[in-house]
């Protein structure tokens, strides 16, 4: 006997969808019995290690979290529904376990894409949403750049204890060990050596994965939850940094400089200096002396010009005001000597500045008399145009006066923003 999988385009699938979810309660835990736990099988599929931030001690990864459980309320007979054996429904329409990442470094535990859950005719539900997790990871840089880091994902139910929800591994060869908890008690833990699936893993350019162990354990939380023990599954990632980049650009130059420093002690004590090689005379300066003097002056001027250039480049209107002689020298004289032209965007900003100036004059012409609640709009009136009594009352309205004040404030703010942007562009130029 074989059944075929169909989509919502099938009328039988539509009828099945309506029959399953018309009276379905997604807030009810689909356990076989009220006092029995529901089994949730978990699997983590790693897609990419996006970033390992050493300073913030946060690891960012793109993963797929596969969850499988059985809900008898979502089972059916395929013969009654035209051989439909698989149905895809939005996960918001059915009960899903509240599996959360305990060591989440980001306050948003959100699924990146609203995926659908897969329903089988025997009641098996499979849900594998993609997510980007930011986990706390203690970074030890003692042996940088030859360091190894161990990070982990800790998943568990936020609401249900072990008596109501049981977490298990979806696949993998498991072994059992005893481990001592914080209270000094021995607990049974389940270990899977290849706990993280790397079938769709995109290799990282900075890190190699050395091991990917997963552990299942139980834990008590007496300070907040005294209704029993809670199950969590921890997926460990042991990472080793790829040292080639740091070796070539950091380690080898440091070793070379240190080696040259040590070699200096092998020079003879009576070795002459370079100045003793050059004949001492006041009649003419040797060309090599002129070269060394010129090089020293060029290096000094280069450092001085660099300091001045960086100081001008990072100036902002909030902290400095560009003098007129600086504008004249760097924006008018030097560009002509160096055959440089100012960017077109600066000319556009100048046009906006002039427009903003006219816009400011328009706001200044709007004189608001708060005591008499009048607005002088003579500059806004056109000839041969009479304003009736209702419009005059509207102009005297406090709401209209407040609106004029807000418009003038926004206009002045935009004008100041345009002016500051133009000054920033001049400093960077």
TrEMBL record:
Entry membrane topology: Multi-pass membrane protein
Domain Neurotransmitter-gated ion-channel ligand-binding: 14-243
UniProt key word Secreted: no
Domain Neurotransmitter-gated ion-channel transmembrane: 250-426
TM stretches of this protein: 244-267, 287-312
Keywords from the UniProt entry: Cell membrane, Disulfide bond, Glycoprotein, Ion channel, Ion transport, Ligand-gated ion channel, Membrane, Postsynaptic cell membrane, Receptor, Synapse, Transmembrane, Transmembrane helix, Transport
GO-annotated molecular function: acetylcholine-gated monoatomic cation-selective channel activity; transmembrane signaling receptor activity
InterPro entries: Neur_chan_lig-bd, Neur_chan_lig-bd_sf, Neur_channel, Neuro-gated_channel_TM_sf, Neuro_actylchol_rec, Neurotrans-gated_channel_TM, Neurotransmitter_ion_chnl_CS, Nicotinic_acetylcholine_rcpt
Entry's Gene Ontology cellular component terms: postsynaptic membrane
Subcellular location: Postsynaptic cell membrane
Keyword Transmembrane among UniProt keywords: yes
Family to which this protein belongs: Belongs to the ligand-gated ion channel (TC 1.A.9) family.
PANTHER family named in the record: NEUROTRANSMITTER GATED ION CHANNEL (PTHR18945)
Name of protein: Bm8694
């Amino acid at each position: 006997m074989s059944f075929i999988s169909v989509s919502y385009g099938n009328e039988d699938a539509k009828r099945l969808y309506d029959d399953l979810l018309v009276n379905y309660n997604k807030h009810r835990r689909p356990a076989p019995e009220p006092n029995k736990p529901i089994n949730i099988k978990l699997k983590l599929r790693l897609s990419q290690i996006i970033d390992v931030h050493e300073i913030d001690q946060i690891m960012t990864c793109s993963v797929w979290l596969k969850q499988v459980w059985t809900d008898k309320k979502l089972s059916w007979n395929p013969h009654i529904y035209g051989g439909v054996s698989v149905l895809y429904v939005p996960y918001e329409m059915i009960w899903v376990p509240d599996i959360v990442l305990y060591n989440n470094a980001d306050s948003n535990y959100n699924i990146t894409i609203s995926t659908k859950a897969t329903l089988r005719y025997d009641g098996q539900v499979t849900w594998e949403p993609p997510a980007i997790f930011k986990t706390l990871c203690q970074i030890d840089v003692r042996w940088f750049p030859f360091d190894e880091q161990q990070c982990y994902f800790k998943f568990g139910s936020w609401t249900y204890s072990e008596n109501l929800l049981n977490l298990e591994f979806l696949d993998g060869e498991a072994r059992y060990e005893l481990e001592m908890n914080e209270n000094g008690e021995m607990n049974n833990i389940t270990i899977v050596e290849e706990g993280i699936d790397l079938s769709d893993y995109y290799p990282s350019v900075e890190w190699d994965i050395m091991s990917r162990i997963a552990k299942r354990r139980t834990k008590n939380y007496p300070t907040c939850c005294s209704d029993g023990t809670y199950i969590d599954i921890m997926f460990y990632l042991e990472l080793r940094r790829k040292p080639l980049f740091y070796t070539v650009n950091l380690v080898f130059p440091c070793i070379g400089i240190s080696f040259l420093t040590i070699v200096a002690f092998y020079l003879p004590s009576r070795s002459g200096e370079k100045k003793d090689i050059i004949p001492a005379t006041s009649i003419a300066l040797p060309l090599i002396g002129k070269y060394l003097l010129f090089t020293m002056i060029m290096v000094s001027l280069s450092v001085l010009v660099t300091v001045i250039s960086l100081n001008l480049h990072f100036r902002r209107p909030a902290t400095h005001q560009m003098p007129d002689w600086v504008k004249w020298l760097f924006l008018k004289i030097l560009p002509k000597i160096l055959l440089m032209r100012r960017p077109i965007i600066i000319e556009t900003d100048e046009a906006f500045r002039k427009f903003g100036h006219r816009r400011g004059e328009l706001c200044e012409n709007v004189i608001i008399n708060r005591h008499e609640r009048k607005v002088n709009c003579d500059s806004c009136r056109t000839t041969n145009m009479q304003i009736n009594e209702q419009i005059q009352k509207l102009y005297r309205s406090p709401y209209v006066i407040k609106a004029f004040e807000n418009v003038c404030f926004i206009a002045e703010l935009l004008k100041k923003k345009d002016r500051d942007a133009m000054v920033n562009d001049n400093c960077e130029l």
